[in-house]
Amino acid sequence: MYIQRCIDDRQYEHADAGCKLLSNITSRTITTDQINEFINHLDENYPSWFDQLISAFSTINFNLKKNNLDYLSAILVNLTHSKLIRQRLRTNEHLKRLLCFTDQHHSTIRRGSIACILKNCCFDHGLFYFYSLDFFAFYFFAESHEQLIHQTENNDDFICALLLPLAGSTADELTEEENEQLPIDLQYLPSDKQRESDRDIQQVLLETILLV
After folding, report:
1. What is residue 141's DSSP assignment?
2. Local structure of residue 8 (DSSP, 8 states)
3. Position 131 pLDDT exceeds 50
């Protein structure tokens, strides 16, 4: 199974090419039913695939042949078209492991994909736009996103993952009293704090904040 080699074999030198191919296969050109069939096939033949995908993606330098595995996040964006995957992300520690990748220090594909994943996970709370990696949209009806806020030990983690990329220097721009009212991760950000530079990612982050 191709995805298994990409996320299990740390010596696989074509992992990035494989991830790009799988990202294209699971893109918005196929239906949600087809994505669910793909997920069911993986569940039956490779039960640990989802845990291993999250682990491989969130482990820096997981691939020892210098493949960055950024496109694993693109695959995950496409898979979050399925309610089953969104539920898996919200009901365990997986989503928590992805929150740090909205940071400006990571690649555009990684930051943009994680922003889209966070947005897609918010769709279980009404009628909203549903975003794919390439930022095209369609409508989707959903139910609840309370777990997004309360699944982490610190209830601010999810919100901070959305706000921190958009924030500038809170140390310079806000008073001490205003800083003290912010979550810890947003307090006294230094003068060289850079905001997210990609306009598309900015838009997705802002729309996700509105959903929350």
Report:
1. E
2. H
3. no
- Which amino acid belongs to residue 106? H
Distance in Å from the first CA to the final CA of the chain: 37
Helix, strand, coil shares of the chain as percentages rounded to 5? 60, 5, 40
The DSSP letter of residue 152 is S
Q: What angle do CA 131, 129, 100 make, to 5 degrees?
A: 45
CA atoms of 147 and 98, how far apart (whole Å): 15
Q: What is the pLDDT of residue 104?
A: 84
Residue type present at position 4: Q
If you search the block for the tokens 């969104």, which residue do you land on? 86
Partner residues linked to 166 by β-bridges: none
Instruction: Give, in degrees to the nearest 5, the angle at Cα 9 between 4 and 12.
Output: 105
- The tokens describing 152, both together, are 């982490």
Asked if the model's pLDDT at residue 129 lies above 60, the reply is no
Q: Phi/psi of residue 16, each to 5°?
A: -65, -40
The confidence band for 122, taking pLDDT boundaries of 50, 70 and 90, is: confident
Top-confidence residue, 150 or 137: 150
Q: What topology does CATH give the domain 2-211?
A: Leucine-rich Repeat Variant (1.25.10)
Domain boundaries, the chain: 2-211
Tokens standing for 59? 């482990």
Nearest CA among 74, 84, 94 for reference residue 40: 84
Strands 127-131 and 137-141: antiparallel
- Alpha-carbon gap, residue 212 to 201, rounded angstroms: 17
